[in-house]
Write a structure and sequence with these properties.
This protein has 274 residues and is mainly α. It has helices at residues 8-33, 44-98, 105-127, 181-234, 238-264, 268-271, and strands at 143-147, 155-159. The chain is built from six helices and two strands. Strand 1 and strand 2 form a beta hairpin.
């Protein structure tokens, strides 16, 4: 039927053109954003899965930050412990020298001054072994806890090692001296005990640091894996989208021409009245 009121061909052509234009807009959005699923409207189920995974990634980044802080605090403690161990080695040398019965008073006093300077340096080192308000070497922080799971339920605890003078690890008192040969001889035994204790404490800190580092490395790999999974779900394939864009552009041009032809059909009715 030829009608000037109703042009079925033009309506059909317009429907196809609108559909093509809609697909072209979606493809352009995919190319602009790099995402084939940018919001829930694109694909609600996949978008929800991706968002949940993004939440896990964000949580694991927080876990990684927590582990990095723990690693840094433990490294500071280990450096301080190593310094204390080195000081004890020097102090032992001074004590052995001061234990010599033939030593004159001036020499013994000189050795004692060096010993006391080294002794006091232990406290100075421990006082400054602080990272982010945590000191694992002077007894102010008995332990440090780091996150290891995205829900915050699992944690790693690093026990502090109190290396303060007169403690259970460094048994040398804050007033210790080498004033006499007898005191120096006794100090040798005390230093040996303290040195063994400090080295054992360093071994424990080293084990904790290794445990944290292994966990942090795993978290880093897990984050990369999750990001890759999210990309597989929502990222656009640019090669496919480029080919689709060209196809839709040609299809749109043809649709415009088809609509123009359909719109010209009613003009044929004029020829019937000539």
């Amino acid at each position: 039927m030829l009608s000037v009121n109703t042009n079925v061909g033009a309506m059909i052509a317009l429907q196809y053109l609108n559909k093509t234009t809609s697909e072209l807009t979606a493809t352009q959005n995919h190319i602009n954003s790099g995402l084939k699923i940018a919001n829930a409207k694109d694909n609600g189920a996949v978008f929800a899965i991706a968002q949940n995974m993004r939440g896990d990634v964000s949580a694991f980044h927080a876990v990684s930050d927590s582990l990095n802080r723990a690693i840094s605090a433990t490294d500071v403690a280990m450096n301080a412990g190593q310094a204390v161990s080195d000081l004890l080695v020097e102090m032992k040398g001074k004590a052995v020298a001061a234990a010599d019965l033939s030593l004159d008073t001036a020499s013994r006093n000189a050795l004692n001054e060096d010993f006391e300077s080294l002794r006091d340096q232990v406290t100075n080192i421990l006082d400054n072994a602080v990272f982010n308000g945590v000191n694992l070497t002077d007894g102010t922080s008995s332990s440090l806890t780091a996150l290891v799971s995205a829900d915050g339920g699992s944690r790693i605890t690093i026990d502090g090692e109190d290396m303060s003078l007169g403690g259970s690890i460094v048994t040398i008192s804050s007033g210790a001296s080498l004033s006499t040969a007898a005191a120096a001889s006794t100090m040798i035994t005390t230093i040996n005990t303290s040195l063994e204790n400090v080295n054992a404490a360093l071994a424990r800190l080293g084990s904790s640091s290794k445990q944290i580092s292994i966990q942090n490395e795993f978290i880093g790999k897990l984050i990369d894996t999750l990001n890759g999974g999210i990309g597989n779900l929502v990222d656009a394939d640019m090669a496919t989208e480029s080919a689709k864009l060209q196809s839709l552009q040609v299809k749109q041009q043809l649709g415009v021409q088809a609509l123009a032809i359909a719109n010209s059909a009613p003009s044929i009715a004029i020829s019937l009245f000539r």
